[in-house]
Design goal:
The structure is a homodimer. By secondary structure, chain A is α/β, with parallel strands linked by helices. Chain A folds into 2 domains: about 5-120, Rossmann fold (3-Layer(aba) Sandwich), CATH 3.40.50; about 135-219, Alpha-Beta Plaits (2-Layer Sandwich). The first copy, chain A, is built from 9 helices and 11 strands. The first copy, chain A, has helices at about 10-20, 35-40, 55-60, 80-90, 105-110, 120-135, 165, 170-175, 210-219; strands spanning about 5, 25-30, 50, 70-75, 95-100, 115-120, 140-145, 150-155, 175-180, 185-190, 200-210. Chain A has a 6-stranded parallel sheet, sandwiched between helices. In chain A, strands 7-8-11-9-10 form a 5-stranded antiparallel sheet. The mean pLDDT of chain A is about 95. Chains A and B meet through helix 1, helix 6, strand 7, strand 8 and strand 9 of A and helix 1, helix 6, strand 7, strand 8 and strand 9 of B. The complex binds adenosine-5'-triphosphate (2 copies). The site of one adenosine-5'-triphosphate has 22 residues of chain A, from helix 1 and strand 2.
Chain lengths: ~220, ~220
């Protein structure tokens, strides 16, 4: 069980708080709107809540923020308040500070203040949404390095009915199928060579990203 | 090469457009601000740009939106304009429509209009940020199903210096190491049993999420 502080109860900050609570961590929320603070407690978004203006360092001093496992600065639209608050948090030695930035210049200023991590929610989600509409065959995954990935794909139709041994993907593409999902309840991890691929199965593939793409296109 | 339309050049919409352009797709951007449209073309965010009010169906009729591979509705703050635009897009039979919602009620209304996919950028990024600060050992990954995951972790210190064969993680935890990253340029996929784990290596593990967590805690 860890202890986190979230400053700013907009949509991003509220979501951070709620997710941390669902993971059973302690969450202190801070906002200068009485209503937001009360709603946060009522909605179970926090274990503690304080109504204060985070640009005022004296208001923050006695909370013991340097003892928290992490602090999330979630004031976006009000750049001045965000930057003043970041300054305060750095002076109070907040650990593992993550700050949301509402624009690139905003983020650069936060970085100049040595905020260890700056996030751009709208920009990052824009990238994720773009990739998902442009690559409809890719359901999930991440890059291992610039050349290789782990990707979950819908089983290409022409692979259906074949066994892994027959397909010999390792020799033909240098990729491995490390999991096969059949329906909602049937998951084979590191499937045996005699495993068969059925229609609508999902395959988790590891290997060179180019080669995985080629595998999909060839089929 | 696919063809997409993005309506609304806020941070989210601009990021969608830019990412699609970086993937070499054709992007038409639509916004009712002349300045945003001109900046988008100047910044290379789009292959085409039109300044129009998307709540006016006549303005949208002759663009041929139903022929695009996807349409992203990225008007957030102005809920009324977002909803009226969604109505128009559904009537014009736009395919693969994704709309950003600025709140849960906003999203529910879009769903009632049968918008196939609604996204909540601030809320989703809040979840991602919360998980990353609460689970500092997890670098990347995704769920295969409610019980199993593929997770990239920093190699636990007490595993360092051991080979996969010695560690016998499959027998002890039922998990498999499917990749080892050594530094920036050394990636072993489906490593052999005699592979050694070095300090600062990153391990990609597949198996029951609980068991992976146990592996990390035991070490
Ligand atoms: N000086 C301050 N001290 C404490 N709380 C503040 C201060 N300034 C703003 N806030 C709070 O921060 C919260 C988030 O601010 P705001 O809505 O401007 O950010 P946002 O980034 O646009 O939000 P979202 O996460 O919804 O995109 C608000 O609830 C606001 O009351
Ligand atoms: N009726 C309309 N027709 C065309 N464009 C519009 C219309 N209404 C708003 N827009 C454009 O949509 C864009 C995004 O709108 P807005 O900034 O309100 O959304 P947002 O979701 O808050 O943005 P962000 O993605 O930055 O969070 C703006 O550039 C605005 O000019």
């Amino acid at each position: 069980i860890k202890q986190f502080a979230v400053i700013g109860l907009g949509r991003f900050g509220s979501s951070v708080a709620q997710t941390l609570r669902e993971m059973n961590h302690e969450v202190l929320v801070i906002d200068n709107s009485e209503e937001n603070v009360n709603n946060a407690m009522a909605d179970g978004l926090a274990t503690n809540a304080i109504c204060l203006d985070s640009t005022n360092i004296h208001a923050l001093e006695h909370i013991g923020l340097s003892g928290f496992d992490g602090v999330v600065l979630a004031i976006g639209a009000n750049m001045e308040d965000s930057i003043l608050t970041a300054l305060n948090l750095m002076e109070l030695k907040a650990r593992n500070l993550i700050a949301k930035a509402s624009s690139l210049p905003h983020g650069k200023i936060l970085e100049r203040l040595n905020v260890p991590r700056v996030v751009y929610p709208e920009r990052d989600m824009g990238e994720r949404v773009a990739k998902s509409i442009a690559q409809t065959h890719i359901l999930e995954g991440f890059e291992l390095d610039p050349r290789c990935s782990i990707i979950e794909i819908q089983a290409p139709k022409t692979l259906v009915g074949r066994t892994l041994f027959e397909l010999n993907l390792r020799a033909r593409y240098g990729v491995y199928i490390i999991a096969i999902k059949h329906g909602d309840h049937d998951l084979a991890i590191v499937p045996s060579p005699d495993s068969k691929i059925f229609a609508h199965d999902k395959l988790v593939v590891i290997g060179e990203t180019q080669q995985i793409r080629k595998l999909i296109e060839d089929h």
